[in-house]
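Module 6 notes. Inverse folding takes a fixed backbone as the condition and produces residue identities as the prediction. Think of it as a translation problem where the source language is geometry and the target language is the twenty amino acids. Below is one complete input and output pair. Work through it position by position during the lab.
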């Protein structure tokens, strides 16, 4: 399954956002992979501060379960000063609908 989504970062947070992802915590990487995540990329448009995320997952259920892991909760807290977040600490994001794909 392919998923795409958009998020934003606060003004001036681009360099720090990138620094915190180079690399992500090994424990978070292992958790993502253990939950069936592969081919995960995040791109930044510096002009609009918009982030575009693309990920391939094994199942929606396993993707959603990541949010309940301790390491994901810590990551959200680590990142929350850089971007808009929801009350639970998760980043505000908007899922995108796939309209075209070419293999």
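Target side of the pair, the amino acids:
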């Amino acid at each position: 399954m392919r998923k795409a989504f958009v998020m934003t970062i606060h003004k001036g947070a681009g360099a720090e956002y990138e620094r915190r992802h180079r690399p992500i915590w090994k424990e978070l990487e292992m958790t993502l992979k253990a939950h069936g995540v592969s081919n995960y990329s995040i791109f930044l448009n510096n002009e609009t501060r918009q982030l575009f995320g693309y990920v391939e997952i094994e199942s929606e259920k396993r993707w959603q379960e990541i949010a309940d892991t301790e390491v994901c909760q810590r990551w959200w807290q680590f990142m929350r000063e850089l971007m808009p977040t929801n009350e639970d600490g998760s980043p505000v994001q908007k899922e995108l609908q796939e309209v075209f794909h070419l293999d």
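Reference fact for the lab report: The radius of gyration is 14 Å.
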